[in-house]
Amino acid sequence: MSDPVKERERPSPQEELPPSGELPHPPSQAAPSDEGGDLYASRKKIHVRSVSGYFAKLRWLLVWFTQLVFYGLPWLTWNDRQAVLFHLTERKFYIFGWVFWPQDVFYLAILLIVSAYALFFFTAVAGRLWCGYACPQTVYTEIFIWIEEKIEGDHNKRRKLDMAPWDGRKLALRSAKFAAWGLFALWTGFTFVAYFSPLDELLHSAATLSFGPWEVFWILFYSAFTYLFAGVLREQVCKYMCPYARFQGVMFDPDTLVITYDTERGEARGPRRKGIDPRTVGKGDCIDCGICVQVCPTGIDIRNGLQYECIGCAACIDACDEVMDKMQYPRGLIRYSTENAVKKHWGRSEIFRHVMRPRTLVYGGILALICLATVVGLANRSDLRVDVIRDRAVLAREVEGGLIENVYRLQIMNMVEYPRSFDVSVSGLDGIRIEGVERMALPSAATESVTVSVRVPPEAAPPGTHDIMIEVRGVDDPSVLVREHSTFMMPR
Fold it and tell me: What global pTM score does this model have?
């Protein structure tokens, strides 16, 4: 962030520079009144001022982490295939060493439950952490603003460029920006599709311009919305389109950590020279420089209190702390705190004790239990899955030798990524045996269906239905065993 003490570039017509040696003092941006105004206010474009500090570094750290994961995973290989691939054609989801099938939709339900409880937990603890640091809208908006700043300059230069008439320079800068945004958006759309269609096939299609229709549609669709949301709409997505912004209020309570402005310490606002004790001039620590508003991606003034537009990015904290350092005042005029902590002047230990309250402990405990159960379930996941369906077209029939036969269809799934052979056997009645296929060889991560005949002597059981057990056991590893219950019909 530039030094607010030094002389800035010539301000916009709405601003005036303060006397020499004082910090810039733009008019406070009070919330617009609804009285006598239009129902819908026209949008004023926000030129976000860059900021540096602890929370800015944390946001960029998460930008790098999330994008390295997103853009990097399709390039990783595992067992001679793409490490993470949701292969819709094969109806298989590959996630490193795991292969998930449509029958594993249970794990998707668990993932949604974990996501919901994580949302409840982190929101109850510290508000909109997801929105401020990891939400794709926040992440891609940060990237698009960074590209914009590199091409057009800082917030003042971008504002001047907007107001300037169209000429060769403006056309060149805007064309370069839009082209850079478009290329980045196209690469994002291509990467998104690479999670659902093998990357090597996509690269070949890109080299030969032979994309399939659904690939073209989704690349362009995802690219267009990345460009639209991060480059054009920006804060409007958070303010008007995202439902989380609307229901966040019911998830907060007076002990939730949120971005707060210390009114008691900051008021009354006003400019003054550097190093002056504000109490000697009848003012608070806030010098009304307005930089906290200039760095806000949604354009709000946090000094007006917590607002639903606040995404909790903490850019205003970094900006205010830097101004406090230059004024030689203590940091924390704007900080993460709770409503009760500000009113009752709590210290960090008291804040922590109230943040870890029954509500958050319950959310955290449930979240930990679900995660633990999921990990245990995945660790003990069987390498074999068997479904047995009795042929209902022919319930029972007599075959050669007077034996009674029932017919079953076995669907056997090899869940590991190497070929395996399985023995099939049956038990439950005297003299019962399988006729035909007793051993099956399956390729890696494959499903095969086979029809088997189960026969018993007529004297083995009286007429009616009888329980039997069909077993499928791995030849190379007898511990891989699945027993499926079924019934055998004896005719009258």
Answer: 0.83
